[in-house]
Amino acid sequence: MPYRAPVEDFRFLLDHVVDFAQVAATERFGDATPETVEAILSGAGRLSEEVLAPLNRNGDLQGAKLENGVVRASPGFAEGYRQIAEGGWVGTSADPEFGGMGLPLTLNSCVNDMMGAACLALQLNPLLTQGQIEALEHHASDEIKALYLPKLISGEWTGTMNLTEPQAGSDVGALRSRAEPNGDGSYAVSGQKIFISWGDHDVAENVCHLVLARLPDGAPGTRGISLFIVPKYLPDAEGNPGVANSLKVVSLEHKMGLHGSPTAVMQFDGATGWMVGAPHKGMAAMFTMMNNARLGVGIQGISVADGAYQHALAYALDRVQGKPVTGTHGGIIDHPDVRRMLIGMKAELFAARAIALANAVAIDMARATGDAEWDARAALLTPITKSYGTDTGIAVAQAGIQIHGGMGFIEETGAAQYLRDVRVTAIYEGTNGIQAADLVARKMMDQGEAAFRLIEEIEEGAEAARGRLPDLAGAVWLAAESLRDGTEALLAQAMTDRLAGSVAYQRAFALVLGAHFHLKAALAEGGEGSRTALARSFILRMLPQHGALLAEMREGAADLYAHNIESLAS
């Protein structure tokens, strides 16, 4: 079955689940009319189905290559990227002053979801550029904005982020890259960066690198890091790509998936760059891009979940094996266990997508209103979105292979590609363990205020649903109350104990939040129909896991550190 863009699902979520109307009602996003929303969703859906999806398999089989110092993209990727750029999809949420559409991030998230499901390896390119655009909009000088933003927004140039070094992964403060003033306002940037997605390619005319490096007077650790924009080709007097900068691709990584996305080892040898933001404040500027990317990576996981689900469903409808226990279709979809897996995939996909779009709505509302509560809501949801979205992508892709049975282990069916492609999403842009640590530490510095506000909303929603869906509403209310108690227990723990239970707490929060959105969907449908049936499956089958997860969270770290190194090695 070819990829089908879930345009109707997005319409339903925006209209009935995540309250997109409040975004469109703000002055900033008043152009997001129903007609505009429809045009964006339907246009991105067609692009994803007709242009990008046919490139997905080929990108896996014929990945990007480094030839004589030049990175060649997978066949067809340049043409696909050109249609993304010419359609204005790179700049959907960018500032209209520089050529963007200025539409809400929520809509852009829907676009990225469809594009990622169609061809994740190619979608990663504009996603990175969008993050760079946001970082420059917030932190760059007027001169840099005027030169770079129009080119990035139009898709003529693309953007990357350069953080990781061989000795500095999650510990960014251990980086060794240096930046020396040239005396003319520019800097000579030197160092090596690894894991640079789309670090070089031939699909656009220039590649602009955001590079973290330390000035000569920069203090050790993250507080001494500055941020620089370092283009592959130095812009000439007219703003067009001129002479080559002093940087190169050392090699491309050989990865288990995402073969169509070139992941480069980059070497900067006194490359000319310009500072973005204030000296020694590079991490603050880079976090603008990283937070954008963390939402985007969560959506990548959801994208792959959608593609894997559709692929598995098509196989289950066609494959005949054994005598079904019940049902009349004839395919393996009539077997209870296959039905269990498919419904679980679809239910978790809906929950993860709703959480991601609610996160995007919170970001949009914070930008449009300046309200600190919306900002806190967005910050709280970001690590949950990133982790639950990517965990869902991995779980759904894994289940898709299982539904294919032995054929899922055969590459020609395409089922394995989804798992190979999505696996890295739980690692890059901050591992899911780091997201969990962020949730229980930095995001709880308000003593749980933002979390308790969200839990209160979940309980109020459940109370409102008791009359029509008493069993589902009661289960969601009890789960929210358990989450409240668990959050209070978490806040009372020492930090080591919090961190030991952080992954369990994060997933428990996601399940309760997902159940809340499923309940809203069931109510919007009227309490009967396919969305209500899906909500029932999620709330009664999957939500109960939250209790065990919160019990794990309460255990703390004592048992983990009761094991000495010798016992682990024996």
UniProtKB/TrEMBL annotation:
Pfam families: Acyl-CoA_dh_1, Acyl-CoA_dh_C, Acyl-CoA_dh_M, Acyl-CoA_dh_N. Its EC number is 1.3.99.41. It catalyses: 3-(methylsulfanyl)propanoyl-CoA + oxidized [electron-transfer flavoprotein] + H(+) = 3-(methylsulfanyl)acryloyl-CoA + reduced [electron-transfer flavoprotein]. SUPFAM superfamilies: Acyl-CoA dehydrogenase C-terminal domain-like, Acyl-CoA dehydrogenase NM domain-like. Its cofactor is FAD. Keywords: FAD, Flavoprotein, Oxidoreductase. Residues 455-561 form the Acetyl-CoA dehydrogenase-like C-terminal domain. Residues 281-442 form the Acyl-CoA dehydrogenase/oxidase C-terminal domain. One of its GO terms (molecular function) is oxidoreductase activity, acting on the CH-CH group of donors. Gene3D superfamilies: Acyl-CoA dehydrogenase/oxidase, N-terminal domain, Butyryl-CoA Dehydrogenase, subunit A, domain 2, Butyryl-CoA Dehydrogenase, subunit A, domain 3. Signal peptide: none annotated. Residues 161-269 form the Acyl-CoA oxidase/dehydrogenase middle domain. Residues 79-156 form the Acyl-CoA dehydrogenase/oxidase N-terminal domain. The keyword Repressor does not apply. The keyword Oxidoreductase applies. Belongs to the acyl-CoA dehydrogenase family. Involved in the assimilation of dimethylsulphoniopropionate (DMSP), an important compound in the fixation of carbon in marine phytoplankton, by mediating the conversion of 3-(methylthio)propanoyl-CoA (MMPA-CoA) to 3-(methylthio)acryloyl-CoA (MTA-CoA). This is 3-methylmercaptopropionyl-CoA dehydrogenase. It comes from Falsigemmobacter faecalis.
